[in-house]
Sequence to fold (248 residues):
Amino acid sequence: MQIQKTEILVLSSKNSDENDVTCTALSPEFGKINLIFKGLLKSKRRSICIRDPGSVAEIIFYRKESKSFFYISDFVLISTPEKVRNNVELYYYHCFLLELISKITTENTKNSFIYNISKKVLAILETEKDSLMLVLFFVLHVLQHNGIMPDLSQCEVCGSSSASHYNLDFNGKSLICRECTPSYNRDNFSFSSNTVTFMNNSLKTKYSANDFSIISRLEAEKSLFYLVLFLEDYFHIIINSKDFIFKK
Fold:
């Protein structure tokens, strides 16, 4: 039985038996893992807030033979999402991000990039005024990290970088301007040039350096919706909590 140490981001949790808590968490070294906190609900020494989805903690854990989950022997709580509890919109986006992270990661597979960006985005969400832009930023980086984000520099067909609207070809990983898009595809959702510029900048700079004024909230919401549908198709998943943020 090997004692190990790591940092975790709690994705979901539930009570188990009378005093135990089981949770699914993300770790930079071990990927998505299943954990059990024995006796947490009756403990007077350990903070029960570690079970809150979105909490970050440093844990010491071990695994018993033939068991599919890890046992936590001790932990230090680093942070817990306090503000999302009192803000409905924040809570919806918080739930969406955690569900998306959980469904695009695999168990026991190291993915330090997804861990680090997830931790940063969830921390920013606590103080961010426009959650929509932050979530769009995150989704764009998920697409890029998985190698499925099209080249946004210019139209693949004619080379134009100044068209008014573009379509994204995820199969060919390319950008196609409205004029070069086949007539049978022109009724599909297209991105304005400002939106393409915003997406391109988002993939090259940190979140705080983006110019959010170049894209309207409506355009951002439509773009996010389209990209989430693509993610669902690519990963063969359904993000149930998307109904919260696209309820209108």
